[in-house]
Structures are given as C-alpha cells and as structure tokens.
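Office hours follow-up: a student asked to see two folded examples consecutively, so here they are.
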Amino acid sequence: MVDIKTEITIQCPLVKVSSYASNPDYAPEWYDNIDSAKWLTEKPLALDSQIAFKAKFLGRELAYVYEIEEYIPGERLVMKTANGPFPMKTTYTWEDLGENGTKMMLRNQGEPSGFSKVFTPFMSMFMKKANQKDLRKIKQILEN
C-alpha cells in the first residue's frame, strides 16, 4: 500500500491556490512528471468529471484517467483512477492561514499490483520526493 502525504504553505489567498491547483489544465505546469491533461468530459470540474493524463514516472510512460470523486471548491478535491497502471487516489486539501497564505496538502494512496507491487517501498520514496518537488513548483508559480 502506498500512502503519501506532503504539504506546503503558499503565500497566496486560498481561492487563488485552490482554483489553480484544482484546474487540470494547469497540471502540466506544476507537476514535473505530467506531460498532458485532456478533458474527457465537459468543463468545468465537477463530480464525475474525467481527465486523461499522460505522464512519466521512474522512466516509464504512463497513461491514466482520473475521475473526480469529491469536489468542494476551496476546500477539498479527491480524484481516483478510472483506469491506469494501478489504482490510485489523489486528494488535495486547502486551509486558509489568513495573512500567512494557504496550506496545501497533497495525498496519494494506492495499491500497486503485479510487477509494481515488488517496488512499493521504492515507489513510495520516489513519489514523496516527486510530490515535494511539485508542491515547491506550485508555490514558486503562485508566489511570483
């Protein structure tokens, strides 16, 4: 089982952070491993929206579809794989820190299967490092 939580404080209002982070069109800008995001359902983001992502992870090309499982604008976004290499759930939460900005938390949970299962401990380590890098990038983008 993979269960990784990372968080960062971004010196921007909650509405700016949450609207940027929850827009799949911006994912390739701040996620280092995501190459593209394509809407499979109509915009805007809503419950059951589906987005196809192409990414690279640990030298492998990945293609997967995320479906929106829960979306409370400015508070929480939960996406799960509708199809892909292994079942994964990604959760974003945002907390208003007033003048100190916004705390953003990114959590990935999943159950690797088959050949990937052997590499779960390594995968967790690499995913945590990647998530930390992605959160630093979104912070840099939004604060500048």
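And the second, which I mentioned at the end of office hours:
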Amino acid sequence: MINSRAKGSAAEREFAGLVYDWSGVRLIRNLEQTRSGGHDLIVHPDEVGPVADAFRALAIECKRYQSVTEANIQKWWNQAIAQAKPAELMPILAYRANRAPWRVVLPLRAVNQALSHSQQLGYCVTLSPEGFCHVMTEAVLNQGVKSHDR
C-alpha cells in the first residue's frame, strides 16, 4: 500500500510540473503546510515577473485519490477556501482520480473580475491544467487593457 503522504507529495510535484509546462512558472511544495495548515503549492522564491506574481495570489490545494465524487470535490473545495482565507489568497483546487486527467477548480472571478465573487462551488469553473494556466497568463497580459480597447 502506498503511503498517503508520499502519494500526496508525488501528486503535488506532478501538478507543479504541469503548471511549469503550461505557464513557465515553477511551483514548489509548501513545506510549512503541515505545521501551519496552509495550502500545498507556492511559487518558487526565485521566480520573478507578472505571471509568477499572479500565481503568488493563489492558494493551491492538490488532491490525488483513487476515485473522486462530487462529495469529495465539495469537501476539498471547502478546505481550499479555509486555507486561502487567512492568507487572503484565491482558493484553487487541483485534483485527479486514478486513470483520469487533472482538473482545476477556480472561482469565476479568476476568469473574469466582473463575474460573481462568490466562492461557493456552484460559482466556480473546472478546467484542465492547460486552461487554468491560460487563464492565469491571460489575466496578466490583459491587466492593462481596458474593455473599450479590445
């Protein structure tokens, strides 16, 4: 049987690798998470630039389970919110079931600031890691662009 801590750390590294592949930003495991109850992944301290800074505004929680139910997702999302709130970060949930692709849950406001600021799961979107990284990089690229400029 696989040690759940080892499985969790392997999942965090796997997801961090996908983020690097799609955004160029290096995420590392938050080694303080066990002691402080924080989120799983943080931006590598050597990373600089606006995209890295955008990822620094996130509290990323990673989950890797044999199978995933809607109840699991709701429980994990509640955990992501609870861990993001004290740090005043945006909650992000990345999860993967065995033989399934990674999925990333994020609030609608991550996609468009004009949309609901509710963090209830019903007001979230679920994307692939590629889609998630696209949202993060596009948000940075479009920060200075006003809607009438498009």
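Two things to take away from it. The chain has a mean pLDDT of 87. The chain is about 40% helix and 20% strand.
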